[in-house]
Amino acid sequence: MAETPYLRESGYAERYRDRRFREGSGSGTDRRERRALRALLAQAKWSAGPWLDAPSGAGRMSDELPGPVVQVDRDPAMVGACGPGRPRACASVHALPFADGTFSGALCHRLLQHIATPVERIAILRELARVCRGPIVVSFFDACSLQHLRRQLRRRLGKNRSGRSAVARGAFLREVQAAGLQPIAVQALRRFLTEQTLVLCMGRHDGQ
Ligand SMILES: C[S@@+](CC[C@H](N)C(=O)[O-])C[C@H]1O[C@@H](n2cnc3c(N)ncnc32)[C@H](O)[C@@H]1O
User: Fold this and answer.
1) Residue whose CA lies nearest to ligand 1 atom number 17
2) Residue 89 sits in which domain range?
3) Which of 48, 71, 140, 141: disulfide with 166, CB 3.0–4.6 Å?
């Protein structure tokens, strides 16, 4: 399957690491995202072992995961920006270089809004489910939000060329199920206001 391109200009990885979630509204978003992830992890059970952060970006959320973390991103600049200290790999979430059930849990944070089609999103969720024997937390952009309506309006007025895709909560949960995962809990950052929403899913190998 042809992957949705995700191209960034030079210096983007360093700016993403050092500024995107530390300045302006980004710091509030960062705080709310961490809170949402913690709330979901508090409802999950997992066995001992490594966790997967994919895509890790510059590793912003890795510290929130319990246990040793393996960071994976398609962009070598992002992998480089993660810094030393953790095992890392430059790879696509479409073809993760790990055996079935390698990880105790996984986080897929801030990727799926860049993926335009349900088919491609489901393929990514399936691949995460393959390598993970425990809970998976995945984020998506909820179309039922003021932020999304504003984005749509700006797009219509030609003021926004953002390629982000939002999907209704129910439709996304059906995509999760189509990937063989069971949605357990949903945590919006600010429901109906902002798009970003996290879902805790039960992996295929999980006895939760
Ligand atoms: C918005 S960043 C999110 C990073 C991190 N999870 C966070 O929340 O800060 C999205 C990341 O997805 C990566 N990415 C895009 N497509 C990918 C793919 N097919 N496989 C792995 N990484 C991908 C990009 O390189 C980028 O680092």
Assistant:
1) 74
2) 13-202
3) 141
